[in-house]
């Protein structure tokens, strides 16, 4: 698959929310469905509160706000990208990447919180980061805005990766 922008795709009109509002609602529904699954697997039990955390860790309520913004931006990015990608093949590819990304996002929560294995979650992080980079690359072909909306997701997962690593260093080994 060629990831070089096609000049012809730049002429494609922007999606009009007045016409495509159903697909925008679907994008938000799917995005927050993934968020809901991840949230359901996030058990802030005594185990979590007993973990030693680095001093720079954001307060727990900030995580919900940050993820809400990220999932909202991701929904809009996916919606713009869907309507701007020039071929059905690229749209299928992007949809598959979104699915993999959602699965990896939920998998991280399951490994970290449900299984209580931050070390295993850390092993999954490179795949999650790669899936975000792949989404940015695919969406960049047709809409720089769609790609740019995913940058906060990449930045936050990078910060969360440092937090995950710090948790391992401060609390490991895990069994």
Question: What does this molecule look like?
Answer:
Residues 1-5 have low confidence and may be disordered. This protein has 175 residues and is mainly α. It starts with 20 loop residues before the first helix and ends with a helix. The protein has a domain at 66-175. Helices cover 72% and strands 0% of the residues. It is built from 7 helices and no strands. The chain has helices at 21-40, 46-50, 60-84, 88-114, 118-140, 144-148, 151-171. It is elongated.
Layout of secondary structure:
Layout: H1 21-40, H2 46-50, H3 60-84, H4 88-114, H5 118-140, H6 144-148, H7 151-171
Can you give keywords for this protein?
about 180 residues, mainly alpha, 7 helices, about 70% helix, disordered N terminus
**Main β sheet profile:** none
Radius of gyration: 18 Å
Structural class: mainly alpha
> Which blocks of ≥5 consecutive residues have pLDDT under 50?
1-5
Shape, per Cα inertia axes: elongated
**pLDDT averaged residue by residue:** 91
Question: What percentage of the residues does DSSP assign to strands (E)?
Answer: under 5%
- The ordered H/E elements are HHHHHHH
Number of strands: 0
Total of helices: 7
């Amino acid at each position: 698959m060629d990831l070089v922008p096609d000049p012809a795709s730049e002429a494609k009109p922007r999606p009009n929310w007045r016409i495509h509002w159903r697909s925008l609602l679907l994008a938000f529904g799917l995005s927050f469905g993934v968020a809901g699954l991840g949230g359901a697997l996030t058990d802030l039990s005594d185990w979590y509160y007993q973990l030693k955390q680095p001093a720079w860790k954001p307060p727990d309520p900030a995580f919900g706000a940050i993820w809400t913004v990220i999932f909202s931006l991701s929904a809009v990015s996916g919606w713009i990208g869907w309507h701007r990608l020039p071929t059905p093949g690229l749209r299928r590819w992007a949809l598959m990447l979104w699915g993999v990304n959602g699965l990896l996002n939920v998998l991280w929560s399951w490994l970290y919180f449900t299984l209580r294995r931050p070390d295993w979650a850390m092993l999954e992080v490179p795949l999650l980061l790669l899936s975000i980079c792949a989404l940015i690359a695919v969406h960049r072909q047709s809409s720089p805005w769609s790609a740019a909306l995913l940058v906060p997701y990449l930045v936050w997962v990078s910060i969360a990766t440092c937090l995950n690593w710090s948790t391992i260093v401060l609390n490991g080994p895990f069994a």
